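Before the break, one more example. Copy the sequence into your notebook; we will annotate it together after we see the structure.
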Amino acid sequence: MTSQVAQPEIVNSDNGVKADGAMLDFTSLLPKDGLKPKEASGEKTLTFHLANAKDFRQGGEFKSQLVLFDARVLGQPTRPQ
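Here is what the structure looks like once it is written out:
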């Protein structure tokens, strides 16, 4: 997780980790029988804290990347019934 203007932390991770390794659990937002093709889970708000923020203007450039992160989605495939 990176930022051009601050040190980002995730506030509401489900495992209490605020940086790399933070986990967000969407299980409670899924239908009991799982997601079907083209369906979506319920919504979850991701909350970030930007510590040690710098000016958006740096060296004559405007920096606009507040938070950049990679995500990995983990789950079990459902089997046709």
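DSSP finds no helices and four strands in the chain. Strands lie at 7-10, 48-51, 57-58, 61-62. Try to locate both features in your own notes.
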